[in-house]
Amino acid sequence: MTAIGFLFPGQGAQTVGMGQTVYEQMPAYRVWFDRARDVLGYDLAEICFNGPVEKLDSTVYSQPALFVSSLAALEILKQQNPAILDQVKAAAGLSLGEYSAIVFAEGMSFEDGLRVVQRRGQAMQAAADANPSGMVSILGWEPERVQALVDEIRQPGETLLIANYLCPGNIVVSGSREACQRMATAAEEAGAMKAIRLAVAGAFHSPLMQSAVEQLSEVLQQVEMRSPRVPVYSNVDAQTHSDPDEIRDLLIRQVCSPVLWHRSLEQMLADGVIEYYEVGPGRVLRGLLKRINRKTACHGTIDP
Asked: Catalytic one among 70, 95, 176, 257?
């Protein structure tokens, strides 16, 4: 039996209209948005399908939107292949997507997960509003070269660091707005393939998110967590964990810690997971996996 891994997308995969056709055609998919309305107190489907894009891209809304859309996407897989869940041997999610992975693995209920994600999005948006900051994707360089440039241009007392190790040649840096601007300019002048300023609210996965930690810790302490029924790889250390308290602590640390996505996927491959599904909107994770191992099959569920 083929060992399958589920990959859940993170913030940035959202697009206005994502999943609308499936929502209209599949009642089981629609149920997840009905459940979300009861928890959130607003119509998430309306924002997902009609935007406006500025609203959907806001951290406050994009995080719940991707969380719900990804878990609803499981219904598509169940309909296409009812036996597929028996073949899933591991799961991982990029940043926010780790919550989707944990709920899929029954480490947390959907309602509790959504409450945590809602608070997480609100707290991270507030932290971003308090500290003008951003993120820059550096393409074409390995981590060592990116780190060397970070060390060169970072000024005393300034925040600038690697935040996401996505795949070979794709490293994301977080920091103050001025530092990110200098980093983007310096990287392109030094020969990087491209430096892309990301359309995000702030410096995620950096110390500038520290003010969000207390709020996230508070809400995570209020929810019941269980040992996942399938291994879920943590963004913080690229390992799997079964102890609920340890998983809770790693989710708290994740807000300010670099995302080790490249290492997580390499570990999944080393552990024998040979086929993957990107469970949720977009194609970002399929692209990253192909950069890590071109021969590995990865299928989609919702392509906007």
From this structure: 95
